[in-house]
Specification:
By secondary structure, this protein is α+β, with helices and mostly antiparallel strands. About 30% of the residues lie in helices and about 10% in strands. A 5-stranded mixed beta sheet has the order 2-1-5-3-4, covered by helices on one side. The structure holds FE2/S2 (inorganic) cluster (2 copies). The site of one FE2/S2 (inorganic) cluster has 12 residues, from loops.
């Protein structure tokens, strides 16, 4: 019979049955109603399900619940504070770093772990860190730009600009020609 574990998600403790075949993504979405983390490939390849555990970006579709006991889990829903978006969220909106938006929570959570680890990443460090996250809409150049802008904001070099809508969403990513990977965005 499964035991009970405590999951600490976005600062809130939850008692959960630690059934061996349950993955974290399913629990977040189906039981805790935290649907920001997305199901993409389900096999650890696309990064749509990325959350941060004890400061490290992990693929929640490939993480067993039992591995999460006693750890601190942050999801996209946990980034805003007092009704104010995290600088990464603001930067993604400011630069229009999404088209359909399906990859965006995972991108932001991977970027969040990166900026905790490296507050002033170079473009190469951003690319290296983000290259496992797939954006099928090819918004990689803007994702890189957004992470740089958020790093500046967090360091205090740059005041976040108010969020403005792109005039024509259909062309918002015209500069970001679809490319297969984030690596392709800098080649
Ligand atoms: S859904 Fe988890 S890596 Fe693709
Ligand atoms: S914005 Fe559509 S998958 Fe990235």
């Amino acid at each position: 019979m499964a035991g009970v574990i405590t999951l600490r998600v976005n600062g809130v403790a939850h008692q959960m049955a630690a059934e061996p075949d349950r993955n974290l993504l399913g629990v977040l979405r189906d039981e805790l109603d935290l649907t920001g983390s997305k199901y993409g490939c389900g096999e650890g390849f696309c990064g749509a399900c990325t959350v941060v555990i004890d400061g490290r970006a992990i693929r929640s579709c490939h993480t067993q619940l039992s591995e999460c006991a006693g750890k601190s889990i942050t999801t996209i829903e946990g980034l805003a504070r007092d009704g104010k978006l995290h600088p990464l969220q603001e930067a993604f909106l400011n630069v229009g770093a999404m088209q359909c938006g399906y990859c965006t929570p995972g991108m932001i959570m991977n970027g969040y772990a990166l900026l905790r680890r490296i507050p002033s990443p170079t473009a190469e460090e951003i690319v290296r860190s983000m290259e496992g996250n797939v954006c099928r809409c090819g918004t990689y150049p803007r994702i890189i730009q957004a992470i740089k802008q958020a790093a500046e904001t967090i360091r205090g070099d740059h005041k976040a600009k108010p969020v403005t809508q792109a005039k024509d969403p259909a062309h918002a990513n015209a500069a970001a020609a679809p490319q297969g990977t984030v690596q392709g965005a800098v080649q």
